[in-house]
Amino acid sequence: MSQPEHLVFITGKLARARLEKVAATLPANRFAWSIADSGVKVAALMTEEIIRRRVTLPEGATRVILPGRCRANPEALAAHFGVPVERGPDEIVDLPAHLGLAGRTLDLSRHDLRIFAEIVDASKMTPEAILAKGLDLARRGADVIDLGGLPDTAFPHLEDTVRLMKQEGLRVSVDSFSLDELTRGARAGADFLLSLNEETLGLAFETGAVPVLVPMRPDDPASLDRAIERMERAGLPYMADPILEPIHFGFVDSVARYRDLRARWPEAEMMMGTGNLTELTEADSLGVTALLAGMCSELAIRNVLIVQVSNHTRRTVEEHDAARRVMYAAKADAALPKGYGRALLALHDKRPFVQTPDEIAALAAEVRDPNYRIAVAEDGIHVYNRDIHKVGTDAMAFFPDLNVASDGAHAFYLGNELAKAETAWRLGKRYVQDEPLIWGAAAEAEAEDTTAFKKAGHTKHSGPGGPPPGTRDARIPAEADAEPPETVGAEEARAEATVDATPGPKKTRLVCGKLVAED
């Protein structure tokens, strides 16, 4: 039997107790572990230099895991320690999942669903404007740019547009009710034609463009079967789309037609146009998209046509891209689409509160400086520093207790953070001070350099001569109050926990209505 992997978790003083509690749940047959306490209070303030200088690995260590918010270069530290170093999750509670104990590894790099993104008003735009929009859609995850033609609207620059987009390496489809526009687009080099039925199917034999076949009417599946049979006999590629209809206008019946078509033609390439649901249902489109992507996954539909017209579908490309990756991974694991990241969660988080009120109270008891910390737990918003610990659910109600009436910049900062914290608490989202709320695929995520600290915010320069005491930027340097570093193994950690649990006289003080241990 192989020896368990020996993990070393590098952390700071304040997080050590919580880390020990989570690490103690790791299966001993898979993981031995040690905690390397750098002596710095806040793990996120550790730098690469601090870790190099203050941390010594125990003998037998096989892998080092840094806190997710630690601004250090794992590759450089791996070279220093001589063992692999990786960045762990932002929150300690997510550590078991990070280590693969959720029963799967998280790999969202693959998918099997091709996204056709339609530019619905292409005929009204210049070729240059169409190209710019097409490149943007491709950047966001679209695989094919669909040029939509409008009824009774001329598209004289169709050929120029197709050629221009092809020159830039884009795959192009032409979507029109006009056989003339479809013919012109195909001759200019379009890759796909949307859509042909059994009466217009002859065009598919005159060009190399792949046709998307549709029924004469949505409730006439036999006409689609006849078109498919003709393409099958000719041995030519095609896609079949039974047409997804809007809710209350045939939606359920149309879903059944996709299932029935797959049963009749198990090897056929299929397409689903999702716009009739995302655009025509005033509901957050991310959930609708996830459901439709799940249907595509079950039925092996490998192409979707998406539309972005309504404001509430402004992120539909990114949402489809996220959904196709989650569904592919879940299908490969023969699993439910749960536990594959937060991309499909916008308004609520599966595990929003990563600290209990008691854990926050214990952290508050350790604070010795005037900087305000903000956290969110199930009971509300917590604001604390060395002098106070307040809990509430109304951001504005904290103002009288914060002593910032004469410090406009600090009041502005705290007001912004507390409003964000209230939003997180009310919705059930994770809140992290000084970080944006995460909205999954529904909003653009800021790119960040995980090896460097963020630049100082605007409040750093408030007041003459620098930051006044108590502002968020008047921080104590990471090592100013550091204690000697130490490395604690699993057995020693458990022994310490046993000693701490032994009843005995301990000084306590009241913090947020709770008695907590005094240092």
Automatic annotation (TrEMBL):
Domain Pterin-binding residue range list: 96-361
A Gene Ontology BP annotation from the UniProt entry: pteridine-containing compound metabolic process
Domain of life: Bacteria
Region span, Disordered: 451-519
InterPro entries: Dihydropteroate_synth-like_sf (IPR011005), DUF6513 (IPR045406), Pterin-binding_dom (IPR000489)
Pfam families membership: DUF6513 (PF20123)
Protein name: Dihydropteroate synthase
Protein's organism: Methylobacterium radiodurans
Source lineage: Bacteria, Pseudomonadati, Pseudomonadota, Alphaproteobacteria, Hyphomicrobiales
